[in-house]
Design brief:
2 strands; two-stranded antiparallel sheet; mainly alpha
Length: 81
């Protein structure tokens, strides 16, 4: 939590890694537990909702496509088995 490492987008907004990991974890668990289609992240209304909550963070943390969600879920599964 005292880390200075972050993720950056093309606009140089830095997001602390622990926050990025938390957002990813919560998003993936919601998708899996609620049986939400992976393509939810491609739905413009989903993206608008997230942007309303925090525009800058949405642009950095929300993946652009279902393939990213699929890869993240596989990675989470591999870590947790």
């Amino acid at each position: 939590m005292g880390t200075t490492t972050g993720l950056q987008d093309s606009h140089t907004l830095t997001v602390p890694i622990p926050l990025a990991q938390l957002v990813q974890d919560v998003l993936l668990r919601w998708i899996v537990k609620a049986n939400v289609p992976f393509l939810i992240v491609e739905d413009p209304h989903f993206y608008i909702l997230i942007r309303l909550l925090n525009k800058e963070m949405a642009e950095v943390l929300v993946p652009e496509g279902r393939d990213t969600i699929r890869r993240w879920i596989r990675e989470m599964y591999d870590v947790e088995r």
